[in-house]
Design a protein that fits this description.
The protein is of the alpha/beta class and 103 residues long. It has helices at 26-35, 48-57, 86-90; strands at 2-3, 15-19, 40-44, 61-62. A four-stranded mixed beta sheet has the order 1-3-2-4, with helices on both faces. Helix 1 (26-35) links the parallel strand 2 and strand 3 (40-44). The N and C termini lie far apart (32 Å).
Length: 103
């Protein structure tokens, strides 16, 4: 678990966020948590099955994308961040939403 600075003093108040694969977007989530003072505790499922299982069994935030359908039945909500900023993100600074690519 990586504990965000905003909840390190009391990790029980952190919101768990589970990613999968090799840590999909974990670096992004860490910076978003830091810049927006979000109380996140971030972990990565050991396998894709673990990631899906943990996210379905527990009330957690998770990395998810479309058209992947594993979580569609739980009616997920998107957390909205400021509009994508190419200059910041090309410098490795993640404070805004990620760039969207048409599928």
């Amino acid at each position: 678990w990586w504990i965000a600075p905003s909840c390190r003093h009391d990790p029980e108040k952190c919101v768990p966020l589970i990613s999968g694969g090799d840590g999909w977007y974990v670096d992004y989530f860490m910076q978003i948590a830091f810049h927006h003072k979000l109380p996140l505790a971030i972990a990565v499922g050991k396998t894709s099955a673990d990631w899906k299982g943990l996210c379905l069994e527990h009330q957690v935030a998770q990395y998810w994308w479309q058209p992947e359908i594993s979580f569609i039945h739980v009616d997920p909500a998107k957390v909205v961040f400021p509009t994508y900023n190419d200059k910041e993100q090309s410098s490795g600074i993640y404070k805004a939403d990620v760039d969207r690519l048409p599928l």
